[in-house]
Structure formats: C-alpha cells, structure tokens
Amino acid sequence: MPVYFQNNFQRAFGTWPLKDKVLVDALKCAIDTGYRAIDTAQMYQNEAETGQCIKESGIPRNEFLITTKVMPANFDDSLFMPSVEQSLKELMLDTIDVLLLHWPPGDGNIGPSLKLLNKAIDEGLTKNIGISNYTADMMRQALQITNYPLVTNQVEFHPLLNQDILLAASQETGIPLASYCSVARGEVFKHDIFNQLGTTHNKSAGQIVLRWIMQQEVSVNTMSTNPSNIRANYNIDDFSLNTAEMNSISELTSHNYRIVNKSIVPWAPEWD
Ligand SMILES: NC(=O)c1ccc[n+]([C@@H]2O[C@H](COP(=O)([O-])OP(=O)(O)OC[C@H]3O[C@@H](n4cnc5c(N)ncnc54)[C@H](OP(=O)(O)O)[C@@H]3O)[C@@H](O)[C@H]2O)c1
Known about the structure:
Blueprint: E1 11-14, H1 20-33, E2 37-39, H2 47-57, E3 65-70, H3 80-91, E4 96-101, H4 111-122, E5 126-132, H5 136-145, E6 150-156, H6 164-173, E7 177-180, H7 193-201, H8 205-214, E8 219-222, H9 227-234, H10 243-250
Parallel strand pairs: 1-2, 1-8, 2-3, 3-4, 4-5, 5-6, 6-7, 7-8
Bound molecules: NADP nicotinamide-adenine-dinucleotide phosphate.
C-alpha cells in the first residue's frame, strides 16, 4: 500500500506559508490532534521550525511521515544532494520519509531531476520519492524513467477544479495523487452545498470538502492556523458521502477555478 494510505497518513498537515511562532503553534496543535504526516519544502523556509516541533513533540520518530520537496533551483548535479543534506540537517532527521520534486523543471525535461531523486534513495537520504505539479503526460514519462515507485503526485485538488485527466493518469500509472489547496483557500465555502451536506452528516462544510477528496483515493494536505479548523480537518474518517452526494459535489468541478497558475508561478507547466 502506498505510504500515504498507511496508518493515518492520508490526512497531512501542510506548513506553507507558516513560519516562526504561528507555525510552531499550528504544528503543535496539529500533532496534538493526531496528525503524523507533515508536509514542508525547501521553498517554504520553515524546515528548521518544523523539525524542532517534531523533535519536541516527544513522539517516536517512526510514527511520523515527513515530506519535504526539493526546489527547482537545486535540480543540478552539484546542488541537489547537498540541498537534501541541508534539509535533513534543518529537519534534524537522519532520513526523509518522502522526498518530492516540488515542480517539473521549467524546460519540461524531467529526466535529470528524476534521476537525482532516485539517487537520493540510493544514498539513503530518503525512504520514498514522489513528484508534485506534474501533468498527466509527465506522470506517464516519469514511470519510464524512475527505478523506484513514485508514491505521490501532489497537485492542486479541490471541488472547484476538474482534475479528471490527472485522476485517470493516476489509475493508469499507479502514482497516487495528493491534494493541495484542498479547500481552495476558502473559495469552496461560497457554495452552499457543503453546508447543506454538513447538516445532513453533522459535519462542517470543510469536513465535507475533505471527505469528497479522500473518497477519491487522494491523500489530503490541509493547512490551518485555527485550532478548531485543524481538528475538524483531521476528523473526517468517521462518516462517508454516498454516490449521489459525491456526484453533486463533483458538478462544481466545472468551475475550473485554478489557484496556482502561471500568473503566480511563472514556471508552472501547461496544466491538463
Ligand atoms: N506542492 C505544491 O506546489 C503546493 C502548493 C500549495 C500548497 N501546498 C501544500 O498544501 C498545504 C495546503 O494548501 P494551502 O494552504 O495552499 O491551501 P488550503 O488548505 O486550501 O487553504 C488554507 C486556508 O484555508 C483555511 N482553512 C483551512 N481549513 C479550513 C476549514 N476547515 N474551514 C475554513 N477555513 C479553513 C485556512 O484558514 P485558517 O488558518 O483560518 O483555518 C487557510 O487560510 C500547504 O500548507 C502546503 O503544505 C503545496
């Protein structure tokens, strides 16, 4: 079973854009709530505080699943491995659980960085590897290049965006998807269906959104600084949406509301 589907790792706590005390307070609350999958990245510049919180939690290291991501500026033979060693140092870990390539390279040539990612496993720097922001075509290409399973493609995934092409590529390649912008940074709450279904299930609107993601066998990253939202986002495994409810939420994907696009991330690929 892919790592994000083991234990309680299907619900991860994302750390972007948190830093300093705001990060420490939110992450402590998340760990107290029960989150053990934690998502950070070199780009977030918060690996050190993240590592400190993990260490200070007193929880055995092997109960956590720590994900970090190599930034494209480090996709270079001389920079890649030192950057991962620096991440390990900041996180105060001996090995990373899941190391992702944060973005496909700007020129679309995914081979060199994927080979470096494989090398990070060979050198014992990480246990698992994966990708982020890859298109369906890149997922298929990646399968031909990698020597090790890619345990995730972390992508924008929420009810206001149609990701059927990526879901089909995930089925085809066996590379599971993980969500980011899972509540579309709050935009989902403009749609009343989540409150309506929340009333039916005695859950909050946010919990309905996340359950819709989880039931598509997509693992979920959420970020919140609000303790009640942190707890709500974790407590989504004690109810289920029926097919009609799933389908009525899926109708919203026709909005094609994409948050992470070239206007904010110029190096983003042409999305599916
Ligand atoms: N791989 C990538 O390129 C990439 C890109 C973006 C993000 N990520 C990862 O994914 C994580 C999550 O994505 P994101 O933070 O961009 O988007 P998000 O989770 O959709 O939005 C976070 C915002 O939603 C609010 N929120 C969270 N849960 C809520 C709830 N239950 N009810 C109401 N509001 C809620 C939070 O406000 P409050 O603090 O007030 O709760 C916060 O402002 C990031 O932290 C990061 O780890 C990865």
